[in-house]
Amino acid sequence: MKKYRFMLIGCGRISKNHIAAAAANRDMMELAAVCDPVLEKAERKADDCMQAAGYRPKVYADYHKALAELELDCCSIATESGYHAQIALDCIRAGKNVLVEKPMALSTRDAQLMLSEAKAHHVTVGVCHQNRFNAPVQQLHKALENGRFGKLVSGTARILWNRSMPYYEQAPWRGTWAQDGGTLMNQCIHGIDLLQWSLGGEPDTIMAMTGNYLRDIEAEDFGSILIRFKNGAIGIVEGTACVYPKNLEETLSVFGESGAAVIGGLAVNRIQTWNFASPAAQDAEVEKLAGTDPKDVYGSGHNSLYKNYIEAIDSHTSPLVSGEEGIKGMKIILAAYKSQKTGLPVKFDDLDFSTLDMSHEDVRVN
Ligand SMILES: NC(=O)c1ccc[n+]([C@@H]2O[C@H](COP(=O)([O-])OP(=O)(O)OC[C@H]3O[C@@H](n4cnc5c(N)ncnc54)[C@H](O)[C@@H]3O)[C@@H](O)[C@H]2O)c1
Fold first, then answer.
1. What is the pLDDT of residues 190-202, one digit of tens each?
2. How far from 41 is each of 36, 167, 172, CA to CA, in Å?
3. Atom 27, ligand 1: residue with shortest CA distance
4. Partner of 97 for a Cys bridge, out of 10, 52, 74, 219, CB 3.0 to 4.6 A?
5. Fold classified for 133-295+327-358
6. Position in ligand 1 atom list of the atom nearest CA 38
7. What spacing in Å lies between the alpha carbon of 107 and ligand 1's midpoint?
8. Is 4-130+301-322 CATH 3.40.5.10?
9. For the chain, which residues make up each domain, given as ranges?
């Protein structure tokens, strides 16, 4: 396999996972450039890459310049969420594959445009939902694919975390409608992606109640969502940035007529319940999973996600978290916002909504 040449656009907090992934996958990729308008941040990442992977990428302040000057195969986008769509479109239109941090965009129109432009330019979009690669989550999916749950009834995603005011003050784009959304869009989207993926992947109707209880931000710091899937199963989301005094757990549960699985821990990394009507060879593998909590809630799934993305491009197949997959969690959350705004259930397929449509909503709960 040839070595794929990447540029990392955005050298903030999550960029360390991208550097680690570049190092872990050095046999199949090279980080040709790192880019950030705050040049010191890009320089620091280039140094980090030197340490981790043994080479120093070029440093750019302007990704347009890098796109014009360098031979690149892929661009990874890790800027503020509100910039993802425009940067992705620029890269796609320059013929580059795009691996974008979650959420892929903040509006259904932008996300759909990214997908249609990628198709037109024959490039692949991937979205960073790295928790799909957690070993317990992969086991859950094997059980689903093998039909071990029987008829699916329900599932839950519970994201019970704490994001304090200093977290928001550190990066003022967080919690704004223009650049981020609230805790559902920022923190809970991974759990929501796992829930929709586990319950059939075809949401039908969404109802939600959200609110801002404790944090001085525009968007919600708590959200509850009900999702009816086309196969009849119901997904329940409880997402909060307000758990006192620190992150408690992120848990995914799936319940069917002949199976029940609960994966908890700090970030869906620990199998807590694994009950099936009929035993299978995989049960022994599940028993061996240590399920230790990751160092931070981002986990280390970026390494596997990059590997899967590069292999998919190389073999002209779809990555596990393609753009078509990545759009679903984002769309469920936008539907939840619309439901909060209108007080009505929202149909998933027809949705046309943006976080900006919430700009004039007061979601504060006094
Ligand atoms: N997958 C995950 O688990 C995970 C975790 C944290 C954050 N994220 C996502 O990653 C993204 C970044 O989050 P963060 O916490 O690292 O933010 P951050 O504010 O720490 O970093 C964003 C960086 O992007 C840079 N940037 C802005 N415009 C740019 C441009 N035009 N070109 C290049 N760089 C530019 C900023 O200068 C900043 O350094 C967000 O979309 C967030 O939702 C994902």
1. 999 999 999 999 9
2. 7, 19, 17
3. 79
4. 74
5. Dihydrodipicolinate Reductase; domain 2 (3.30.360)
6. 37
7. 18
8. no
9. 4-130+301-322, 133-295+327-358
